[in-house]
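Folded chain entry
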Amino acid sequence: MSAKNTVAAMLISGALLPDAVMAAPEPLHPYVGMWVTDDGHVRHELLPNGRYDEARGNRESAYQGNYHVTGNHIDYVDDTGFTADGEFIDDVLYHGGMVLRRKNTSTDE
C-alpha cells in the first residue's frame, strides 16, 4: 500500500486523530425537536438528519420516515411510502387535523 493510501486509510479510520469528534450537521430549519398534541397522545420527533419518529399513545415509534421542510411547510414520507404534510404557524405544527406544540425538553419533563 502506498504511503498516500496508508495515510488516507488512517484518516478514515480515525487512527491519526483519535480525539476528533465529527460535528452533527446543522439543521436547515428551526423545527428540529419534539412536537406533541395537548393531550400528549401524538408525539413527533423531528431529527436533525431529516428523519422523524412518531409515537402514538403507548406505541413508541408507531411511524418513522423522512421529512423535508420548505419555509414553514413540512412534507412527510413514512417508511411504507405514505405521505402527509403540515404547516408551522406561530411555533405550532398543524398536521393531519392535529395541533402539535413544541415540547421544551428543559422544562417539560
Observations:
- The first strand starts at residue 33 and ends at 37.
- The CA atoms of residues 37 and 100 lie 4 Å apart.
- Strands lie at 33-37, 42-46, 51-56, 59-70, 73-78, 83-89, 92-95, 98-103.
